[in-house]
Design brief:
The protein is α/β, with parallel strands linked by helices. The chain contains 15 helices and 13 strands. The strands form three sheets. A six-stranded mixed β-sheet has the order 3-4-5-6-9-10. The model has no long low-confidence stretch (mean pLDDT about 95).
């Protein structure tokens, strides 16, 4: 039996390569004769850079940028061997860069993400670089909810209040936005093609938007969510009035606190499902066609996963190829019937397999043990 192991990270616990290795350990214990193929993946969130460098090859570099609350941050980007560049919003504007007691959803800004895009542009276009550089921006894990205005400001865009003064950074100021000025936008924007790799398909604002759904994770109170959502609504209105672009309801506009919409509006970006982009680079469809079983997984397999995150993307490809797919998760928040409809024949959470305490404190061993249980249950079915 040939088994393809294609998980995402277990967020806050193990990165995707370590998850894949732990699943492989479990497969070898349960099926000693199995041939194992590892393809750790990502879907636009954290781990996208590593997944693309591993699949394509490339050179990793770093830049000093402004973190979500103004602190200096060393953030990586990569120049890929196929001539593209890649970076992650989470590296410059990530929620993990802010200790929980310091989180400030109204003030956090994406300025550093714009600086990181500029650094990737400078690196990719230097010397005998291409006339046009494609930059992949992994969207996910941000601390900000500023609609990408911080990132755009780093590239020369201005966001003005009723008196013509620049707004302070952060989504909390967007309610005072009255005009957008792109007259000072950086020259390099015209030489770059930006691709926003989204791990969700949420719109910019509203009940399914960036503030309402993800604001509380960033420390936003109910009152803060109202402020942020109103600001994003005003931002969308100004983008349409001043730039003639309708971005609020683009799938993925709400990714990374609305940076998806900001990339589309101010960087002329194309938004794509991040899983599709990584899967193409990794040759995932071809790999699935050559195996008998696929095992995928992520830290939390829940309703948001159904928007196209890694396990669901893997399962859909497996279903198309007629290959059985199983899934592991730290936490399961989706009914078995919903998973079966997407192509996941069976799923198991680490908590159910080994108990919550071990799942948290001994993640690698727990993943291996849960894999053994999942495969033994498969044989009994």
């Amino acid at each position: 039996m040939r088994v393809l192991i294609a998980p995402d990270k277990f967020k806050g616990t193990l990165q995707a390569p370590a998850v894949a290795s732990a699943i492989a350990e479990g497969v070898r214990r349960a099926e000693p004769d199995a041939e194992v193929v590892l393809k750790p993946l990502a879907d636009g969130g954290e781990g996208t850079l590593e997944a693309l460098v591993d699949a394509i090859g490339g050179r990793r570099l770093t830049a000093t940028v402004t973190g979500p609350l103004g602190d200096a941050v060393e953030a990586p980007f990569a120049l890929l061997d196929d001539g593209r560049a890649v970076l992650e919003v989470a590296a410059a504007t990530g929620l993990t860069l802010v200790a929980e007691p310091r989180r400030d959803a109204l003030r956090a800004a994406s300025f550093g993400s714009g600086e990181l895009i500029a650094a990737a542009a400078a690196g990719g276009l230097a010397g005998a670089g291409p006339a046009e550089l494609e930059i992949i921006v992994g969207l996910g894990g941000s601390a900000s909810t500023d609609g990408g205005t911080g990132a755009a400001a780093a590239a020369g865009w201005r966001f003005l209040d009723a008196t013509g003064d620049d707004l302070v950074r952060g989504g909390g100021a967007l309610r005072r936005l009255r005009r957008i000025d792109g007259g000072g936008a950086a020259e390099w924007l015209g030489r770059c093609r930006i691709v926003g790799a989204c791990d969700i398909d949420n719109p910019l604002h509203g009940s399914s938007g960036a503030a309402s759904v993800f604001g509380p994770q960033k420390g936003a109170s109910a009152a803060d969510v109202e402020v942020l959502d109103e600001g994003l609504d005003i931002l969308a209105t100004r983008i349409e009035a001043d730039l003639g672009r309708a971005v609020a309801w683009l799938p993925g506009a709400g990714a990374a606190g609305g940076i998806g919409a900001g990339l589309a509006a101010f960087f002329n970006a194309q938004l794509r499902p991040g899983f599709e982009l990584v899967a193409e680079a990794a040759g995932l469809a071809d790999a699935i066609a050559e195996v008998d079983l696929v095992i995928t997984g992520e830290g939390s397999l829940d309703a948001s996963s159904l928007g196209g995150k890694t396990p669901i993307g893997v399962a859909r490809l497996a279903r198309s190829a007629g290959v059985e797919c199983l899934a592991l998760a730290g936490r399961l928040g989706v009914a078995a019937e919903e998973l079966e409809a997407e192509g996941i024949a069976a799923a198991l959470s680490l908590s159910d397999a080994v108990g919550h305490e071990l799942a948290v404190t001994e993640a690698r061993a727990s993943i291996a043990e849960a894999t053994v249980t999942l495969l033994r249950d498969r044989r009994r079915a």
